[in-house]
Design goal:
By secondary structure, the chain is mainly α. It is built from 16 helices and two strands. The protein is 74% helix and 2% strand. The longest helix has 35 residues.
């Protein structure tokens, strides 16, 4: 596959995931009042919306990396993890077709089975593969292949055991629906196969050990990149280390109390730390040389949000003020607000870009400030020797050349 084909495939996959994400959002809103008696269910609309934004960060980070490095395993891993999270969220389709309006949607039971099982590869990809392969897409050494194979076995075997288990899907929140993929002849085998799921924490711990080994062998830049992912993974593990035992003790079955639901929601949202850490490593340490693209994306996203909020607030405030004072229609408020937003675009863009550069591209920001200060001194300094020394210093600080020398042409006789 050529790089161009790989890029097109990545963007095509992202477009498909985005369409599925929108579908999840629509059905999630339609079924917002259903609730659930299962553990780890999220019913609060704000938490659902926040978790929806969290899972979207996986494919966003993945497609940005693949756009620059089409063969990057890290980018494709993030795309795959995002696909699992988004398809897992498609159970809201099943909620609508099996619980809210039974029989109204085709394949609702199929989506329920698959979506309920995809939590395993979604967590496994981030907790094993990403830790083993970050940041260069290669294992720490060939000896770590067995950890990679173990992780693969756990995810494949565990997911199949969940999908093929026969009987009613009460544990998934559909107590009156039979599993369409259930294999009754394998019921006993599948019951014991669920024990494979307990190997997932083992595989994750071994993968974390591989990250530690890579850190010990890495240089300063790679160590800084690993620090971000290690901190994010450690935060997720710490949250789950508290929530999981509490959930087992307090609510072994049935609907958990409100405070435990809040803790579970925090645990689910903590997964957003993983793609966020990868993006920070990209922005601050130019991990995949896409920092310019991401800085522009961040800049214009923040800019669009600020201008959009200002536009809506301006229309509402001016419309209310003008109607109370003059009785005029809202058209005048829209016109004034549009002109104000147009006038504020460039100044606001400059401030947002400066803030993004100051936070994520410190070298570029400091270089610009150094050149600006040197330009100001040029207007006031008259001593040639002083200017020569300052010019050499500025070039060295901003461009970082291997060697700097300055030749001044002498005066003609």
């Amino acid at each position: 596959m050529s790089d161009r084909t790989a890029r097109l495939a990545a963007w095509g996959a992202f477009a498909l995931y985005l369409a599925m994400w929108v579908m999840d959002a629509v059905f999630g809103y339609l079924t917002r009042n259903l609730g659930s008696d299962t553990d780890w269910s999220v019913s609060n609309l704000v938490v659902v919306a926040a978790f929806g934004m969290v899972i979207l960060t996986f494919p966003v980070a993945g497609v940005l990396i693949c756009n620059r490095r089409p063969r990057s395993r890290i980018g494709w891993l993030l795309l795959a993890a995002g696909a699992c999270w988004i398809m897992g969220g498609a159970t809201v389709y099943s909620d609508y077709g099996l619980r809210l309006h039974p029989g109204s949607l085709p394949g609702a039971d199929v989506v329920a089975v698959i979506g309920s099982a995809l939590w395993l590869p979604a967590i496994g990809l981030c907790g094993t593969y990403l830790l083993l392969l970050f940041p260069d897409g290669r294992l720490p050494s060939p000896g770590w292949r067995w950890v990679f194979y173990l992780s693969t076995f756990v995810m494949v075997a565990g997911t199949l055991s969940l999908v093929l288990t026969p009987g009613l899907m009460g544990d998934s929140g559909y107590p009156h629906t039979m599993n369409p993929f259930g294999v009754g002849e394998l019921a006993t085998v599948l019951h014991y196969a669920h024990g494979v799921l307990f190997l997932l924490p083992v595989a994750m711990a071994l993968s974390a050990a591989g990250l530690v080994v890579r850190f010990r062998r890495a240089g300063p830049v790679e160590r800084a990149q690993i620090d971000w992912l290690a901190a994010a993974a450690g935060g997720v593990v710490a949250v789950y280390a508290v929530v999981l035992p509490v959930g087992v003790v307090v609510s072994p079955s049935g609907r958990p109390p409100v405070w435990l639901q809040a803790m579970e929601a925090v645990a689910l949202l903590s997964f957003g730390l993983i793609p966020a850490a990868v993006l920070v490593a990209v922005l601050r340490y130019r991990l995949y040389e896409i920092d310019v693209l991401i800085r522009r994306t961040v800049t214009y996203t923040v800019l669009a949000a600020l201008l959009g909020a200002g536009y809506l607030a301006g229309i509402w405030l001016l419309g209310t003020l003008l109607r109370s004072l003059t009785g005029a229609s809202g058209a005048l408020a829209v016109t004034i607000t549009t002109l104000a937003v147009w006038a504020a675009f460039q100044p606001l863009r400059g401030h947002v870009q400066s803030g993004v550069d100051r936070r994520f591209a410190r070298e570029r920001y400091d270089s610009a400030r150094t050149l600006e200060a040197f330009g100001g001194r040029l207007r006031d300094e008259l001593d040639l020797e002083t200017l020569r020394g300052e010019m050499v210093t500025v070039v060295d600080e901003t461009l970082r050349p291997a060697h700097v020398s300055l030749w001044l042409r002498g005066e003609r006789a």
